[in-house]
Write a structure and sequence with these properties.
The complex is a heterodimer of chains A (141) and B (145). With 141 residues, chain A is mainly beta. Helix content of chain A is 12%, strand content 38%. The chains are: A mainly beta (141), B mainly beta (145).
Chain lengths: 141, 145
């Protein structure tokens, strides 16, 4: 299968990503996490453990890395327009990420309905393990 | 033009909407107090270029019906396109809290997901406003035609 690159960005364009996956858009897993952060941001996320992901900062200052709760994840938010573009985490020297598909607005209608997800009962170890299985490896520019 | 009956919600899931209801961002830096004597009126999504990326469910109050209790200095302002609407979000956690509306600058829209105890997923069938073809643009197009 050949992979395609999908480029998402915040509203003002200061931060974004290049997400490569061989999955057809209709097969992307779409997750609506029910934590307070994701609900208030309206986050809908996807990932592909066989794909690759690179976040792009067109201007360094607007990238806000927000951490909360277990503080093992950077939630990437634009300081200028407030849009949540995705998240990254580290495990055993490797980085993994997800993207908020709302930053690919022209594609939203092609995606499957979101699955409601509740990760509230996970331990930090469970969480890292799940992300190693599901999240997209981060690659360097 | 189609019209739909406006809906209001005095209870969402287990949460009663109080006449004065607090709203917070995620990190708690920003706290608002909203006057909601009739509950949450006419909650909507919007498909404009910003709201599509934010995905919030929004309802409105008069300007006098929103007070910043805490964190006014944490709020960041974003404006685009005609620069009329004023979109505010928390500078720490990024959560959109409220905006002064372009369609009616005498009102604030606010993020229903920020109301204490309210899960916007508990509101059934939230309609979507056509923010791509903004009412103010449609009016301008008619005026100039």
């Amino acid at each position: 299968m050949t992979s395609r690159a999908y480029e998402g960005a915040c509203h003002c364009g200061a931060i974004g990503f290049v997400y490569r996956t061989a999955l057809e858009t209709r097969d992307w897993p779409i997750r609506a996490c029910q934590c307070a952060f994701c609900r208030a941001h309206g986050g809908l996320t996807t990932s592909d453990p066989h794909g690759s992901l690179r976040f792009v900062e067109r201007e360094p200052s607007p990238l806000n890395r927000y951490r909360f709760a277990k503080k093992i994840t950077d939630f990437l938010i634009c300081r200028a327009c407030g849009v949540y573009v995705g998240a990254t985490t580290q495990s055993a020297g490797r980085s993994f990420g997800i993207v908020n598909v709302r930053t690919l607005p022209s594609m939203l209608e092609q995606l499957q309905p979101p699955q409601s997800m509740d990760y509230g009962a996970e331990t930090a170890t469970d969480r890292v393990g799940r992300r190693e299985q599901r999240w997209t490896p981060i690659v360097a520019a | 033009m189609t019209t739909s009956k406006k809906r209001s919600y005095r209870k969402v899931g287990p949460t009663e909407i109080r006449a004065k209801h607090r709203a917070t961002c995620h990190c708690g830096a920003v706290v608002l107090e909203l006057d909601l004597p009739n509950g949450i009126e006419d909650p909507r999504r919007c498909n404009c270029s910003l709201c599509r990326r934010k995905g919030a469910v929004v309802a409105a109050v008069p300007l006098s019906g929103l007070r910043i209790v805490k964190g006014g200095d944490m709020l960041r302002l974003y404006r685009f396109n005609t620069n009329t609407a004023r979109h505010y979000f928390c500078g720490n956690c990024g959560i959109y809290t409220h905006h002064q509306r372009r369609v009616n600058p005498n009102e604030y829209g606010f993020n229903v997901g920020c109301l204490e105890g309210v899960d916007p997923f508990d509101i059934p069938d939230v309609p979507t406003s056509d923010g791509v073809n903004h009412p103010a643009d449609r009016h301008a197009a008619r005026s100039s035609a």
